[in-house]
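[Structure tokenization] protein backbone as discrete codes

[Encoding] learned vocabulary of local backbone shapes

[Begin record] amino acids and matching fold tokens:

___
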Amino acid sequence: MEVTVKRMNQFLMFKLPSAFICGVKLKELNSEKAMVSVKHRWINQNPFNSMYFAVQSMAAELSTGAIVIKKIKESNKNISMLVTNHQGSFTKKAVGLIKFTCKDGILIDEALKRTIESGEGQKITMKSVGIDENGDQVSEYQFEWSVKLKSK
């Protein structure tokens, strides 16, 4: 089964309902990048009338993880994935529509190749940047993903 935007958003609804309820949506997915959007609403706000940091984290993680899922599926190998670390920084209040973009697809290719060839787990750090409707950066995240060939 091919990993598509539509299928990933269905996955959100059934497997990550908190992200779905908060309005996190995958908008674009290809081999190099993924873009996720989320709009500031009552359900995802903090007491300061902006988007709660955890909602931004969910959207940013999806922008990195969707590419990892796509690449693992395309490898036709039984590979596990797990976030092992993450870091976020915030530069502006997140209000309105925020788009999180990750452009690190090439990093995954290299890590998957190494884990398939060696059987050893690999770690990759991927960046996701959140931009508001005015083109201003509101946050930036680094997610460390671990990929490992599952034993049979």
About this structure: The mean pLDDT is 96. Residues 53-75 form the longest helix (23 residues). The helical segments are 5-15, 17-22, 53-75, 105-118.
